[in-house]
Amino acid sequence: MSCTYQDRLDYIADYVRGELPESEQETFETHYLGCDECLNDIRLMEKATLAMHHYGGTVFAPKTTWLDRLNIWWDELPLSPQWRTAIPSLATYVLLIGILSAGYYWFNSSLNKNGGHFYGDQPGGMVPEHLEKTFVKLEHFDWAQPPASTTESALFNRLAAIQPVYQARNYRLAADRLAAVVADFPQSPEAHLFLGVSQLHLDHTNAATKNLKKVLQMRPDYAPAQWHLAHSYLRQNRFDDARQQLTALIKQKDSQFSALAEQCLKEINRQNK
Amino acid sequence: MFTQNFIDDMGKSPPPPLDKEWIASRREAVKHYLWKKWNLNGNDLDDVLQETMVAALQSFANYEGRNNAEPATYLIGIAKNVVQTHFRRRDRHQHRRAPLEIAESIGVLFRDEIEAQELAKCLQEKISKLPKKYVQVLKLIYYQDYKERDAAAEMGIPVDKLYSLKSDALKRLRKLCKKDARFRP
Questions:
Q1: B5 with A6: Cβ contact below 8 A
Q2: How distant is the alpha carbon of residue B31 from its chain centre?
Q3: Domains of chain B: which residue ranges?
Q4: Within 10 Å of residue A203's Cβ, how many Cβ atoms?
Q5: C-alpha closest to that of B134 among B163, B99, B156, B159
Q6: What is the number of CB-based contacts under 8 A between chain A and chain B?
Q7: Is there a contact between B125 and A62 if contact means CB atoms under 8 Å apart?
Q8: pLDDT value of residue B11
Q9: Domain total for chain A?
Q10: N or C terminus: fewer CB in 10 A for chain B?
Q11: Which chain B residues are closer than 8 Å to A60 by Cβ?
Q12: Same domain, yes or no: A76 and A18
């Protein structure tokens, strides 16, 4: 049976402290002799009251945290005032060095993962091993005998001047110079192609894709541009675009690039990309 | 007012039947009453408790329960008779006057002093969860033995407010303690 007595807890608290008038005390005693709920609360209150009264120093002591304990431990250490000042300064210095080292290590490892580029074009993606061969093949592009479409001698001279830089794999300088050529000869697929390939070497995949697409707008069947555009897509993890580009290249039956494209497509399919 | 509430509430529900089982179930309550009211401890407490229970079990058939009286009235009457006989034999009569000491509570509330100390640490955990005002009220009243009026003056609040704070603090503390098995009987 649940006790329906109102203000029970205040009443119990007064009873426990012996502050109830005699008559009320007797009435309450008669009640709790028959009421389990009140008896349990009386016992709880008796325990708590006794503990607060006799162990108040413990019960009302502010709870110490690990920081307080550390402070007490530090205060009790037998150190001279000079050491008391020096040790925290040294600890702060060591902590700072630690944080900086960790930051440097993290930055460096990120840089390595991204092939030396922290911002800008993110290379990443799948790059088949045999792709390197294609750069070699392109480097063996016959600079002395450009395609028939390269009719302008000025353009030819400019490209021939860049050839040593490009073949020396100084792609940054080559890209700068090729960009100037592209500005002067915006309708030259060769200039766009070499600029795109140089940018690909520099892992500037977005810019490379843009230039290689321009080449294909001018000459849709230009196999080296198709191949390198596919390569650029792969680096950006755009597998469907790369697959589409490679399929188109295979259909062309180009003696140099179609076989490579087939091989590359198989590799992509094998890896389920 | 308290008494009136109490009596009113008692009138609402019928008293439980007085039988052997009920009497046996009140053993702990009688023990607490004898300890708290009559300041009995140790062997004296055990003897008087035993005598009370035996007397109650032997004579409950004679109890008439007039005016719809609580069976506890019968039990408390028996306990008073037994304890007075006990004091006559010992030539002393002792109501509790002084506040309780830990030593007096051993065997009734605590098994030993270690249990009391552990409970104090546990109580510290609970009290640290209470708002500061509640802690201050409890500390002044239950540790530093302030009367409510003095505690209110110390805290710079009206007495009514202090009563209200004390009441709320006890309710919160009870709620926290009830969840903990260490505080259960």
A1: yes
A2: 10
A3: 2-90, 112-183
A4: 19
A5: B163
A6: 147
A7: no
A8: 44
A9: 3
A10: N
A11: 124, 127, 135, 138-139, 143
A12: no
Q: Would you state the structure tokens that stand for residue A119, as one six-digit string?
A: 């911002």
- In chain A, the percentage of residues whose pLDDT exceeds 90 is 8
Task: Show the domain range for A34.
Answer: 8-59
Encode pLDDT of B32-44 as tens digits. 888 888 888 888 8
Length of chain B: 185
Contacts of B3 in chain A (CB under 8 A): 23-24, 27
φ/ψ of residue A104, rounded to 5: -65, -45
- Of the candidate CATH numbers 1.10.1740, 1.10.760, 1.10.150, 2.40.330, the domain formed by B2-90 belongs to 1.10.1740
A249/A201 same-domain check:
yes
pLDDT in tens, B115-138: 888 888 889 988 988 899 999 999
The one-character DSSP state at B60 is G
Q: Report yes or no on A124 lying in a domain.
A: no
- Measured between CA atoms, how close is A67 to chain B, in angstroms? 17
Distance CA A120, CA B12 (A): 83
Contact B26 A34 (CB under 8 A): yes
Residue A185 forms part of a structural domain: yes
Residue A26 domain-assigned? yes
Please name the residues in contact with A6: beta carbons below 8 A apart, sequence gap of 6 or more: B5, B9
CA pseudo-torsion sign B17, B20, B25, B30: positive
- Model pTM above 0.95: no
CATH of the domain at A143: 1.25.40.10
What ipTM score was computed for the predicted complex, to two decimals?
0.80
What pLDDT, in 10s, does the model give residues A15-39?
A: 888 888 888 888 888 888 888 888 8
Reported as a single tens digit per residue, the pLDDT across A204-262 is 889 999 999 998 888 888 888 888 898 888 888 888 888 888 888 888 877 778 888 88
Place of tokens 């035993």: B50
Q: Is the pLDDT of residue A123 over 50?
A: no
Q: For A51, which of B2, B9, B120 is closest by C-beta distance?
A: B120
CATH 1.10.10.10 fits B112-183, yes or no: yes
What is the CA angle A102-A106-A108, rounded to 5?
115
Residue type present at position B115:
E
Q: Is residue A230 part of a domain?
A: yes
How many other CB atoms are found less than 10 A from the CB of residue A160?
12
